[in-house]
Amino acid sequence: MPARPLAPAEPAPAEGERPAPAPAAPLPWRRLVLVFLALLALAAFLRLPGWFVAVFNSDETFLATQAEVLNRGGELYLEAADRKPPLVPYLYALTFSVTGSTSLAYPRALATVAVALTAFLCLLEARRRWGARAGWIAGVLMVFASILLPPQDGQAANFEIFMLPTMTAALILAARGKAGSSGVCVALSTLAKQTGAATLLPVLWDVYRERGRRGVRDALIGFAVPLVLVALAVGPGQLIFWAVLGNGSYVGLRSISPEVAAKLFAVTIGFVAANLAILWHLPRAWRERHRDDIDLWLLLISAAISVTVGFRFFGHYFLQLLPPLVLLTAGALSRASMRTVKRTVAFSAIVAGGFLVVGFFAERLVPDAKYRQVAAYVARNTNDDDRILVWGHVPEIYWASGREPATRFLTSGFLTGAAGGRPPQDVSADLATPGAWDLFLEDFAAHPPKYVLDTSPAGIRGSQYYPPGKFPELFGIMRSSYEYVRSIDGVAVYERIPGSLIQPPTTTSTRR
Q: If we measure between CA atoms, which residue out of 384, 390, 179, 146 comes closest to residue 278?
């Protein structure tokens, strides 16, 4: 019987490449459920401060106010505008509707699920690429890294937290050649925050490698369809203006300044220090890079670009960097000694424990707006259908008082050009949202507020740089139709004079 010919030997890895890692056996579904629940329990423990701290940052109360407007039958952008896509306000509204409460603990609980899901997806992808050890490293490090920021960034239910699961899922699906569904996931990320669209870069790379031009076409269609459907639901003009066109001054190069550069340096140093255990292995991941890792490096590059867009360097922006960072680190650690792995995970765990403790003292460590007393005064002296206007940047007053805003602008930055992440004195009429004053005056006349609450005397978040007296359109109305009542924690309270008439502007906006 003739001998069978020997199979040709596999070629040795080319220089700069490594042998393909041995694939880990698929986990049974019951084991998958247990793994997810374990990650969820870890995330819930590290986010316990969310059940005890009323407010971590003003973004939460801004979103909560939008959610209350939606749950009362209002329309996003027409009655509660922001320079963001619509997904996260609706998630807040859903939690408030289901729980019957406006406590921020419930959106934070949903954010905890989002973190656990992101960690679970990172675990699955690392396991597929580098084996079982890399899987649990990626999952655990993702949960730890999600809180390694100041509490107002790491513990809050911010936009980025809700973007991470679909952003990670998009990469996983694309790496498996699932072009259409990966495009849908990128669209969902984009509907949480515009920078989610940057995930298209690694997604298109992966689907082109797997399926060529047809894959690219399917991914772009998958990306476009959800955006078109949402645009039709909320109004194409509204979505395009508020999420894209209305951001011109917000992301302009005028944002660059010495103060902004100093903030970038401080936030970056803090992020690197807190995540040193993860970042320490990045050079090794680069040295041992492989062509199959290109998508992860592209994801990291796209996330880094997203962090810098607009030159406003808030800590929670850096959350977008975490999935590619923990995956690349897991890949490097899959080839390291167990001692190195244990040290890395232990260091991250210790740092995370420190941030957990700090989270309970967030309101004491970071002085924020005094809103409770003025919100309580408003709640006592108004009816449920009365509206108020807060001049400044304190959406906490709307949320805590339970009263709807008189205009679609929950903060004054749309009108004054003042914005977070810029020097507070950087106020200029040409930085205001185009057409905002027309819309503001229309809304004001349509449902005049019972109270105007001027935060500029209190100097909250730079409001002293843009008092109402600098804006004749508003100041004229306040002089003729409102009278000063009192000051509460430095906030000047003006009450509407009974029977006073407020005329709509002579020119009306077409952006309804």
A: 146
pLDDT digits (tens, 9 = 90+) for 297-321: 999 999 999 988 766 778 889 999 9
Averaged pLDDT, 258-269: 79
Contact 166, 206 (CB under 8 A): no
Please tell me the distance from the alpha carbon of residue 184 to that of residue 174, in angstroms, as a whole number.
Answer: 11
Contact, 330 vs 281, CB < 8 A? no
d(CA 144, CA 350): 9
The tokens for 394 are 């304190």
Which residues lie below 8 Å from residue 480, measured CB to CB, with a gap of 6+? 500
The domains of the chain are located at 29-364, 372-496
Name the token pair of 493: 């309270």
Structural contact between residues 20 and 129, judged by C-beta atoms closer than 8 angstroms: no
Distance CA 178, CA 203 (A): 10
The answer to whether 277 touches 148, Cβ cutoff 8 Å, is: no
CB 130 within 8 A of CB 331: yes
The rounded distance, in Å, linking the Cα atoms of 75 and 88 is 14
What is the DSSP pairing of strand 404-405 with strand 482-488? unpaired
What distance in Å separates the CA atoms of residue 314 and residue 160, rounded to the nearest whole number?
11
- Longest Cα pair distance anywhere in the chain, in angstroms? 109
Looking up tokens 């996983």 gives: 172
What strands lie across the sheet with 387-391, from one edge to the other?
404-405, 387-391, 451-454, 491-496, 482-488
Looking at residue 17, what is its pLDDT?
43
Question: pLDDT-derived band of residue 421, with 50, 70 and 90 as boundaries?
Answer: low
Bridge partners of 494? Answer: 452, 484
List Cα–Cα distances, 156 to 36, 44, 249, 301, 372, in angstroms.
Answer: 22, 13, 26, 25, 19
Handedness of CA 141, 143, 146, 147 (dihedral sign): negative
The Cβ of residue 256 has, within 10 Å, a number of other Cβ atoms equal to 12
* DSSP per-residue codes, 394-457: -THHHHHHT-EESSS-SSTHHHH---TTS-TT---GGGSPTTHHHHHHHHHHHS--SEEEE-GG
* Average pLDDT rounded to a whole number, residues 412-429: 73
On the question of pLDDT at 13 being above 60, the answer is no
Check whether 443 has a pLDDT greater than 80: yes
Q: Is 414 exposed, middle or buried (0-12, 13-18, 19+ CB in 10 A)?
A: buried
Instruction: Please tell me the distance from the alpha carbon of residue 193 to that of residue 189, in angstroms, as a whole number.
Output: 6
pTM recorded for the entire structure:
0.91
User: Which pLDDT score is estimated for 212?
Assistant: 94
**Coil, helix or strand for 454?**
strand
